[in-house]
Amino acid sequence: MNKHKHLSLEERFTIKTFLDNSASFKEIGRALGRDCTTISKEVRNHLLFQKTGCFGRPFNDCANRRNCPVSGLCSDPDCRFTKCSLCSKCHLYCRDYFKEFCPDLSRPPYVCNGCTKRKSCTLEKHVYSPRFAQEEYETLRSEARSGICISEAEALQLDSFISPLIRKGQSIHHICSNNPDEIMFSEKTIYNYVDAGIFSARNLDLPRKVSYKPRASSHDSFKVDKACRVGRTYSDFLSFLEGWPDCPIVQMDSVEGRKGGKVLLTLHFVKCEFMLAFLRDRNTAASVFDVIERLYWELRPDRFMKLFPVLLGDNGSEFSNPVALEIDAEFNHRTRVFYCDPSAPYQKGAAENNHEFIRRVLPKGTSFDNLSQTDVSLMMDHINSYSRASLGDYSPYEVFRMFYGQEILDLLGAHLISPNDITLRPELLK
Length: 430
Hints:
alpha/beta; two-stranded antiparallel ribbon
């Protein structure tokens, strides 16, 4: 029996073939030389959810769909359905909607692969797909080998012990060699944690650390939470929007200058195409948290939650601490964080497109090290005052003001630039 070995793509295709033929987990395990619980965990951990109907009938999982007489809920004159029960979107408008779950999915094999009712079923399908399972496995394997290997509580406990000693002028080598029972981590690990901003002590508190020039091979790709994507994937984001279709979305991203130098955090309001940018010394999760925390308290929690109900970012390490962004110091929920799929920048294309205006002023390869936040704010004032055809020839500043009012703009420090005074060239900051 193949113990302690990961399943291969070929074995996953074999599992699918057996599931399509309604084979049991024991039969599949015997064929692959695996324990049946291994097969069961593989199938349940890599379910692909599909909201598809059947031949001639769209997806509809409402329990009342068979005897529902209601029609015209969406008030759409172009709707071609005579009854709402024939529509896949009726649950967005109906107050009597109640989701029906297939009882067969609560017992082995937990999937619809070999189900004989699949051709006439309009409920949500749970499918085992070998390629999808392989991609999820590779992503989880990669995340499991990156980031920190301690919980948030353990990190806080370690911080409370190490940071005061560092501030006394003690080196990490001295601390680790004299307190092995309290720390139980290598020096390199502690250096990595300080470098990533996990502790309240920073690199500036290490006298010899700041005197060394960073090596050319060093990088800031350090994930704080290696399981940050669980429950926050792009498919989870789309499912969330189904229940809140009018929820305003803010896309967050980073714009780099010179490698290893200062970097911008951009927050793009999709509906009004208004963008904020904040200068950070390093591209770390701690620097992103500092920006969100400052906005949260400067705007007041109620205004912040109105402006930033959902944050959509990419898979960069600077966004790998979602809990710190979602929960404030008093354990109140302030926003929701979701992630785009890997290598899919088009999923937050609005922010990517708006970065073209930033690159007009700060071309690629330009160092941000000599910039100040005042320079960045001036640049964004010119960009946000620039009229857009997509907004009916209004500027993002004017549309944002119509949505949220002048008071919010004043709190954000945004200013309207006269149309003929707008400059989108490098000369603006010279």
